[in-house]
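Slide 14.
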Amino acid sequence: MENIVLHKAETRGHANHGWLQSYHTFSFANYRNAERMNFGVLRVLNDDTVAPGMGFGTHPHRNMEIISIPLEGDLKHKDSMGNTTTIHYGDVQVMSAGTGVQHSEFNKNKDSQVKFLQIWVIPNKDNVTPRYDQISLNKKDRVNRFQQILSPSSEDEGVWIHQNAWFHLANFENGFTSKYKLKSKDNGLYVFNLKGDITVNEQELATRDGLGIWNTNELTVKANSDSEFLLMEVPMELPK
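Slide 15: predicted structure.
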């Protein structure tokens, strides 16, 4: 039988650091909620806004797949692997932290904010060699369709990670409806609605609402207004 968990936007954890406004779907930093630790291997879903010229200083990560999706502005990245890059709206960045990596992220612009999603996925392999990648997407390819942005395979569309997961972005026009079929029976699907209003199966989602569904093979998404959303298909069982 299908199972669901609904996370309304206003129920998320919130951290106001002045230069950073961060909303946490799952427990993170000082936000602790025993009922919201993860959705399967999806461990972190942070919705961040960084003030002009500000950012995260150099800090470490290990044994985590870290995905950044800019929603507005330009985010400058620098890491211990020698990468110095800038990611923009329309890009997707991935970092396999593996045995350990350090990086920093800053708002490149002095007069405009940056908005981006910071997502952590628990990997199916520990202590891999750290790795970095980013791609630029054609945003037209997600109009009234699911645009794949991440998978387990380097030969597939989008970036890849060490996990049996698939991410898709979509921009649906008002009234458009489509079905998404899960790629693995052991996976669940977490829908994060970025803007607009959608109905997932029979559950309505407003801007920044999240919905997790498992024990299902497919779902139906209908746009009740022009909408943008992220679908994250992930294994429900944590690695042992």
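Speaker note: The chain has a mean pLDDT of 97.
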